[in-house]
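Sequence in, structure out.
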Amino acid sequence: MRTSPGQMARLLLFALALLAVTALPARAAVVCTLLADAATGAVLLEEGDCDRPVTPASTFKVPLAVIGFETGLLEGPHAPVHPYRPGDPDWGGEAWTQDTDPARWMRHSVLWYSWHITAPLGAEALSRHAAALGFGNADFTGDPGFGNGLERAWISSSLLITPREQAAFLRGLANGTLPVSARSMDLTRALLPVFEAGGWQVAGKTGGAYPRRADRSFDRSRGIGWFVGWAERDGRRVIIVRLTQDEARTQGSPGIRARDALLAEWPALVGRIGMAD
């Protein structure tokens, strides 16, 4: 069957419209942006709902590193090394199927490496340590009735934290005032990935997760993205907490998108708080 010129024109218009829709930028609402002076704790910028408790997702790796070093389950940036085992989560790609040390764990956010810390400690000890660090509600019970707290309490489950609580924990880590040894804090700070933004050195951790529906499926149109850490320049240090939530299903990690957006906005943000050149 031959296609008439009119049909061809309509098909072309349809294809162009489809291309325009798929090319639209991903939309993620900013739930909270919180910037605070690390030295004084003074809030420099607060926008959105910074008291909403949500899953910490992989930002939990930061306090977990502190706990790991404090308890001796982590020894240094490259020890211990744990091998990938068949059956371990591999949805993080090739980076998750290799031998992993603490540095790779933090850099690639390897879920199963976390289990080498949570499993030996147990839920009660984890809860005690998290409470001492002031990290959210310190609830490691996991999904009700599933007994999976040591595997995923921090991923759309029982462990919840607000952006304001993230900022308080980060300030303690940045200033070395958490109730743990200086060594545990030094080693944890050294694990955080570092980025450059507008002449500032930004150290921080991403976190991404999807809310659960009542049937336990994940709502991938409402991805939660975190980027938490601090920025340093010329002796100044600013605590950073950014929390976002997707408004539509989007490719890629919500946490990485939250990080990239914050880094792109950083020059404008420091201008708003009076710290630009």
